[in-house]
Design brief:
Blueprint lengths: L3 E3 L16 E7 L2 H14 L8 E4 L3 H12 L15 E4 L1 H13 L10 H11 L9 H6 L7 H20 L1 H8 L12 H12 L9 H12 L6 E3 L5 E5 L6 H10 L4 E7 L14 H6 L1 H13 L3 H9 L5 E2 L8 H11 L3 H7 L18 H18 L15 H12 L19 H4 L1 H10 L8 H7 L3 H6 L7 H10 L8 H6 L7
Parallel strand pairs: 2-7, 2-8, 3-4, 3-6, 6-7
Antiparallel strand pairs: 1-5
């Protein structure tokens, strides 16, 4: 039975109070700073009970840290916060989604057996045994896989594929389970067959624990929820902030939770007009905003503004935070055109000009990540010099792969002592643990030793890890001497002549 209970007002703060009414609420704006300030004000005016958790859904740790800093600011400061950031739970949407399933259905494990990590190892075991002719494309790839590397790579790709199907193509999996494959091209018939093989390999009591199947059960059970219901372990309020896209499954879960939980979306929308179905639009919005367009369409399907508009008006909480930017700069004009959904022809009709010294949009071309970060550092120093009110905490820099850029950021931003007036405080968010822990980096390097040329620099770098130095009885002060010995002996790479010859190189090198 689903652990759904109904609480009444005599149970104190466990009952959603009148100041925190349930509902699916949508706040939109074209400036993230304005959305952040309203979110802080929203929480400050309608606080939860002492020690009650405040749940935020975010898409990155960077946004989470930025929100925490905003909440922790003193009220007297510009864009002041609550003066403290405590009892905050920053989550990714997928985690809350599974928690919502467990809270309503009650018979689910902490993690789904069909999650990507579990699927990977199940597929690793299944793939070599799939001999049916339908699996011929997979078997061709696995030919000559003497060390299992191909199998591991293929299992990882397939696990990711089925993980995405559970979220975005749940109807396909349901049809495949029922052997309905009419829309599947002949060369892709191995996909439904493999999904059925995965289900057959799963214990009977876990076969209906895929997210696609669980989601259907959840929606059916959630139909019973009302505003007076209280689901065990569900928060009274969920704040969704700074998320640019979300799967339909997740939105359906949040919409179901909104029957008895206040779910508030703070959405950065560059356009104040509805552009979900617009065909005539700004070309930049059309080319870069397709994902956002789909997201806004899904949000509008669940949004019932009339249900909460009066409550927000009574509490002086705005729902539309669109601000028209100044047309004096090129960036302001671009943002204004997108905000008003103007086409290029309409912009040309305005016949506006921009100061030749305008630098609101600047492109830098760099030959390497190191140079990119150096340019960034110089630009930030110039910005701080031009605007004394600008603070490092007001700046967030986004990169495509933080793990690739992290060493360069450390090298450039960490080269100056803290007492130097050019020092810029910085932190790195969203790094994988394997990139932050020296011992894990060393372990990964050691596991790839059979593919290594055993370069002297790589081996000496391993000794920078304290655990490895301790294993061989070396002190940090011994490293300069070891480096001089290696350099003086002319050692460059290779274990010995035999190993160099195995790589097709002259043995005497």
């Amino acid at each position: 039975m689903a652990p759904i209970t109904t609480h009444h007002s005599e149970q104190g703060h466990c009952m959603p109070s009148e100041s925190i009414v349930p509902g699916f609420m949508l706040v939109q704006g074209n400036r993230t700073e304005s959305l952040r300030q309203l979110a802080v004000e929203w929480l400050r005016r309608h606080p939860l009970a002492p020690l009650e958790r405040e749940v935020f859904l975010v898409q990155s740790n960077g946004i989470a840290q930025w929100l925490k800093q905003s909440l922790a600011r003193n009220r007297a400061e510009h864009d002041g916060g609550c003066g403290i950031a405590a009892a905050l739970e920053m989550q990714l949407p997928a985690r809350l989604q599974w928690q919502a399933y467990r809270a309503v259905l009650g018979d689910l494990p902490e993690a789904s057996p069909f999650d990507k990590p579990a699927l990977l190892w199940r597929l690793m075991r299944l793939l070599p045994s799939l001999a049916d002719a339908v699996y011929a494309p997979l078997q061709r790839f696995l030919q000559d896989d003497t060390d299992g590397r191909k199998c591991y790579q293929l299992a990882g790709k397939l696990a990711d594929l089925f993980d995405q199907y559970q979220v975005y193509r749940a109807d396909w999996l349901r049809d495949w389970e029922n052997r309905q494959e009419t829309a599947v091209p002949p060369e892709q018939r191995w996909q439904p067959a493999l999904w059925r093989a995965i289900l057959a390999d799963t214990p009977p009591d876990e076969r209906h624990s895929s997210r696609a199947a669980v989601h259907r059960r959840f929606l059916a059970a959630a139909e019973k929820l009302t505003a007076s219901s209280r689901v065990t372990k569900w928060p009274r309020r969920v704040v969704v902030f700074g998320i640019s896209s979300m799967p339909q499954q997740t939105l359906e879960v949040l919409a179901a939770m909104a029957r008895c939980t206040q779910v508030v979306f703070f959405v950065n929308n560059p356009c104040q007009q509805y552009w979900g179905d617009s065909e005539v639009t700004h070309p930049l919005l059309a080319s870069w905003g397709s994902q956002g367009r789909d997201y806004m369409r899904l949000l509008s399907e669940h949004d019932d503004r009339k249900a909460y508009e009066a409550w927000c008006a009574e509490n002086e909480l705005k729902l539309d935070l669109f601000e028209t930017p100044s047309p004096d700069t090129l960036l302001g004009q671009l943002q204004g055109d997108i905000l008003q959904l103007l086409s290029l022809d309409e912009r040309k009709e305005k016949n506006t000009t921009v100061d030749g010294n305008d630098h609101s949009i600047v492109f830098h071309i760099a030959h390497s990540p190191q140079r990119e970060v150096e340019i960034l550092h110089d630009q930030l120093l110039a910005a701080f010099a031009a605007d004394p009110a600008l603070q490092p905490r007001d700046i967030m820099v986004m990169v495509p792969d933080i793990n690739a850029y992290a060493p360069h950021i450390q090298a450039v931003f960490g080269q100056l002592p803290r007492d130097d007036h050019r020092y810029i405080p910085f932190t790195l968010a969203d790094q994988q643990q394997r990139q932050q822990k020296p011992l894990l980096i060393a372990l990964e390097h050691l596991l790839r030793m059979d593919q290594s040329r055993f370069a002297a620099s790589e081996i000496l770098d391993l000794l920078d890890v304290p655990a490895l130095r301790e294993r061989f009885g070396l002190a940090e002060t011994d490293l300069p001497l070891l480096r001089r010995w290696v350099s003086g002996a002319g050692i460059r790479w290779g274990l010995d002549a035999t190993q160099r010859a195995a790589l097709g190189m002259p043995a005497a090198m």
